């Protein structure tokens, strides 16, 4: 019987600073067989850890078609993530997964895909973005709305130039410096009445407070609840729907999510 | 048939070469404990307060060991005998077997355990979901040997090859074999379970009411033979780079259960189950919504232990009746 708690080992081959407290780790499985077998759907996550320090959930934020290596963007926020930020390349991490349901292609095939990311929510979007740039995402068009605190917290900054060649990236900052020329305020300022969402599927990822307001903006513009997707965060341990930590109503975020359609979860108390 | 006297010899025989757990009275309370003197084993219709749970789902266990970035499987559990389980507790074993169907740690422990059930039906005031003992329930329960009480003898059934082997070795040939056919009866899903599932979200005020009195001690979850939720964490060894990744019981009533990292609000970490009503609903939701949805069984066998230990008198039997009444019109 396969033991779902035994992780695979992966080596860190590159570390790039993103913001004062987010680092981007590029990893490669130590075992050749693990490397060959690894595949995932955009929006899925892994349980990544460090022996002696436990494990936690992280989005796979690299391409889903080039999986010889994969990226995790880790925010420094507690015990494990603090420790991960101290690591150097060649260090070994434990990986289980990928787990859960991402956003399958069938939901946005030949439609426009609107990615709405707040803060670290942009991490989830990167795998979609990279594969769209590579011509491997079946969406008609991609648009990204990104709300962030200030300029120094912008994620994946060095990639925007390439991204903007192929799709719209609208950014607003909550507390920008005086020199910031872009939009200011919370993420809903990025919506205006000139936008046409008739053929759009949206994915929203961000802090809990954000969901309600963004969903309202999308509904006002005619998006159906079946076409609005959210990715949820919960405390997680097992990743396979057993330990109960991530349950919402009848569902498990680790197994049935983290990506849910709004239609699926809107009636569940406390879901967002 | 096995006579009372022969049964005593059987218990002695088992304790000679195995770790045996059986109901014994300690400090006035019937509990599942390790047998040191077979004479103390008590076979009765009373449910031991502490169930078999700690034996099949230990409070803490290693998932694997590690040293210098190498991973080693956890040490195999010992074989042991769990003696004298009532049908109520066999139902809980069967329930856990479904929950942990793909869990090698639980399956390994269950496979190596010899489970011996008995037919005396509990009749304490806190129990519910109870039926009279009827032989046709046996094919839906996980056990190795089952003793059906007659006047002063026992009819003996086996539910596995291990059960047959131990009886053969002991020298008792008079048994009937019953093949396990899975937990669900031909008649279909449990109607009580379906009714509770259907009405679960109708009366939300019940959680407000219970939330006002529950003190979140978590005793009900620890004592419940069907509660199994857990944390996972690493336990470093004294030797550098070595240790084990463990899982251990927790309780959904504890405030850190749903806590996540992040900016603290009023010195508290953000969490998703924010209040007592939310937490107590979550407990019932697991048993009467998620479990039925996932494995078609409720996460409750009606043993009444949670009611018995609750320091503020929260009574699950009453609460289920209230849920069944549904929307207050
Ligand atoms: C599906 C999913 C995807 C995620 N993707 C990312 C990502 O791509 N990048 C990123 O930086 N963060 C991500 N997170 C959040 C990340 O898991 C937490 O930041 C991390 O667990 C913090 O661990 P810590 O030990 O540093 O914090 P501590 O506060 O020290 O954590 C203590 C324990 O609480 C648990 N815990 C704390 N916060 C969370 C949380 N948010 N989710 C689950 N368990 C938690 C962990 O089990 C941890 O062991 C994701 C979370 C989920 C649920
Ligand atoms: S035993 Fe009673 S008081 Fe304690 S957590 Fe359970 S319901 Fe609440
Ligand atoms: S009655 Fe209480 S202790 Fe017994 S199985 Fe049901 S919830 Fe668990
Ligand atoms: S992480 Fe254990 S149930 Fe979802």
UniProtKB/TrEMBL annotation, chain A:
| Record Gene3D superfamilies | Dihydroorotate dehydrogenase, electron transfer subunit (2.10.240.10), Nucleotide-binding domain of ferredoxin-NADP reductase (FNR) module (3.40.50.80), Translation factors (2.40.30.10)
Residues at which [2Fe-2S] cluster binds: 238, 243, 246, 254
**Biological process GO terms, please?**
pyrimidine nucleotide biosynthetic process
- Decide whether keyword Iron is in the record: yes
Q: How is the cofactor bound?
A: Binds 1 [2Fe-2S] cluster per subunit.
Q: Domain FAD-binding FR-type spans what residues?
A: 5-105
Instruction: Quote the PROSITE patterns the UniProt record gives.
Output: FAD_FR (PS51384)
Q: Which cofactor does it need?
A: [2Fe-2S] cluster
A GO MF annotation of the entry reads: flavin adenine dinucleotide binding
Q: Write down the Pfam families for this protein, in alphabetical order.
A: DHODB_Fe-S_bind, NAD_binding_1
Task: Print the keywords alphabetically.
Answer: 2Fe-2S, Electron transport, FAD, Flavoprotein, Iron, Iron-sulfur, Metal-binding, Transport
Instruction: State the protein's name.
Output: FAD-binding FR-type domain-containing protein
Q: Which organism is it from?
A: Candidatus Buchananbacteria bacterium RIFCSPHIGHO2_01_FULL_46_12
Specify the taxonomic lineage.
Bacteria, Candidatus Buchananiibacteriota
TrEMBL record, chain B:
Q: Which GO terms describe its molecular function?
A: iron-sulfur cluster binding; metal ion binding
Please give the SUPFAM superfamilies that the UniProt record associates with this protein.
Answer: alpha-helical ferredoxin
Q: Which InterPro entries match?
A: 4Fe4S_Fe-S-bd (IPR017896), 4Fe4S_Fe_S_CS (IPR017900)
Q: Which UniProt keywords apply?
A: Iron, Iron-sulfur, Metal-binding
Answer whether the UniProt record assigns the keyword Lyase to this protein: no
Q: Which residues form the 4Fe-4S ferredoxin-type domain?
A: 204-235, 291-319
PANTHER family according to UniProt: ANAEROBIC SULFITE REDUCTASE SUBUNIT A
Its recorded name reads: 4Fe-4S ferredoxin-type domain-containing protein
Instruction: Name the source organism.
Output: Candidatus Buchananbacteria bacterium RIFCSPLOWO2_01_FULL_45_31
Q: What is the lineage of its organism?
A: Bacteria, Candidatus Buchananiibacteriota
């Amino acid at each position: 019987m396969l033991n779902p708690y035994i992780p695979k080992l992966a080596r860190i081959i590159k570390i790039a600073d993103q913001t004062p407290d987010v680092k981007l780790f590029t990893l490669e499985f130590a075992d050749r067989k693990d490397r060959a077998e690894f595949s995932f759907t955009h929006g899925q996550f892994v349980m990544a850890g460090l022996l002696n320090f436990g494990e936690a959930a992280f989005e796979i934020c690299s391409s889903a078609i080039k999986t010889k290596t994969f990226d995790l963007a880790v925010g420094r926020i507690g015990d494990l993530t603090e420790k991960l930020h101290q690591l150097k390349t060649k260090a070994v991490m434990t990986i289980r997964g990928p787990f859960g349901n991402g956003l399958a292609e069938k939901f946005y095939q030949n439609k426009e895909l609107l990615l709405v990311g707040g803060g670290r929510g942009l991490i989830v979007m990167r795998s979609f973005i990279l594969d769209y740039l590579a011509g491997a995402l079946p969406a008609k068009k991609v648009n990204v709305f990104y709300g962030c605190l200030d300029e120094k917290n912008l994620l994946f900054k060095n990639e925007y130039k390439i991204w903007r060649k192929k799709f719209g990236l609208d950014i607003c900052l909550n507390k920008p410096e005086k020199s910031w020329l872009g939009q200011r305020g919370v993420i809903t300022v990025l919506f205006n009445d000139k936008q046409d969402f008739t053929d759009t599927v949206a994915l929203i990822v961000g802090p809990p407070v954000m969901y309600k307001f963004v969903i309202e903006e999308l509904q006002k513009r005619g998006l159906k609840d079946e076409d609005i997707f959210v990715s949820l965060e919960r405390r997680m341990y097992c990743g396979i729907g057993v330990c109960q930590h991530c349950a919402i109503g009848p569902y498990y975020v680790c197994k049935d999510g983290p990506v849910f359609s709004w239609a699926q979860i809107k009636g569940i108390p406390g879901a967002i | 048939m096995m006579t009372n006297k022969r049964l005593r010899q059987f218990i002695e025989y088992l304790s000679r070469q195995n770790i045996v757990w059986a109901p014994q009275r300690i400090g006035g309370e019937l509990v599942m404990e390790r047998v040191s003197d077979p004479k103390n084993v008590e076979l009765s219709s009373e449910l031991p307060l502490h169930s078999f749970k700690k034996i099949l789902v230990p409070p803490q266990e290693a998932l694997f060991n590690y040293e210098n970035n190498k991973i080693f499987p956890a040490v195999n559990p010992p074989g042991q005998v769990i003696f004298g389980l009532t049908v109520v507790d066999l139902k809980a074993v069967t329930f856990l077997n479904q929950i942990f169907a793909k869990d090698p740690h639980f399956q390994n422990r269950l496979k190596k355990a010899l489970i011996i059930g008995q037919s005396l039906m509990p009749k304490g005031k806190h129990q519910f979901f109870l039926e009279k003992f009827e032989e046709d329930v046996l094919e839906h329960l996980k056990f190795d040997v089952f003793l059906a009480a007659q006047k002063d003898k026992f009819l003996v059934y086996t539910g596995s090859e291990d059960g047959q082997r131990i009886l053969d070795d002991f020298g008792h040939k008079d048994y009937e074999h019953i093949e396990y056919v899975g937990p669900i009866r031909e008649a279909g899903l449990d109607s009580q379970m379906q009714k509770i599932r259907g009405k679960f979200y109708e009366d939300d005020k019940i959680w407000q009411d219970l939330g006002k009195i529950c003190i979140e001690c978590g005793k009900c979850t620890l004592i419940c033979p069907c509660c199994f939720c857990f944390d996972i964490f690493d336990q470093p060894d004294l030797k550098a780079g070595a240790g084990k990744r463990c899982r251990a019981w927790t309780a959904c009533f504890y405030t850190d259960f749903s806590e996540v990292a992040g900016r603290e609000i009023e010195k508290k970490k953000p969490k998703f189950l924010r209040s007592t009503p939310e937490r107590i609903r979550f407990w019932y939701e697991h048993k009467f919504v998620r479990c039925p949805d996932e494995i078609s069984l409720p996460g409750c066998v009606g043993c009444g232990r949670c009611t018995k230990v609750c320091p503020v008198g929260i009574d699950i039997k009453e609460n289920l009746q209230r849920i069944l009444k549904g929307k207050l019109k």
